Amino acid sequence: MDEHRWVDDLDAVDLDELSELYRLAPLGVKPPDRLAVVFGNSMFVRFAYAGSRLVGAGRVLADGIDCAYIADVAVHPQHQGRGLGRAIIGRLVEAARGHKKILLYANPGTEGFYLDLGFLPMATAMAIWDDQGRAVEAGLLRAAP
Ligand SMILES: CC(C)(COP(=O)(O)OP(=O)(O)OC[C@H]1O[C@@H](n2cnc3c(N)ncnc32)[C@H](O)[C@@H]1OP(=O)(O)O)[C@@H](O)C(=O)NCCC(=O)NCCS
Fold it and tell me: What atom of ligand 1 comes closest to residue 86's alpha carbon?
């Protein structure tokens, strides 16, 4: 695995560069002002740099005791497949250790990645999405039976 510099201080991160990382990964359009809110409200944040370039990121929304939710894990395409995603999840799980449950939802196609890292599929997970129809189309939710 390549050497990375790890940052856990949101103030040290260029939010335009973070937004660009998600566009490239790809993990959707995440405007800098919204990233400031969601990362700012997260208990744990981790950023990986290769030199001066931001190449990986992730966060944990957590309550300190019961639930910790891992979100927005992404690796720059030029750095994918070299162990960085595994390292980000490892650091986020370590930060969230002690919570009764650590949850996430996998982007369709990445389930194997999380299975390898010790996550199991949730048998009864349910969700309300802001756009349920689109989430069903994207394979994130199953339509009501
Ligand atoms: C998914 C993602 C975070 C993985 O990061 P990565 O740095 O490429 O993954 P790693 O190199 O650490 O891979 C770790 C292991 O998972 C496997 N793996 C990686 N992506 C996988 C996938 N999509 N499905 C199944 N296994 C996968 C690797 O082969 C590797 O296995 P190995 O250790 O036996 O060789 C990265 O590809 C990414 O940013 N994708 C686009 C955004 C995204 O989908 N994010 C996830 C949101 S839920």
Answer: 12
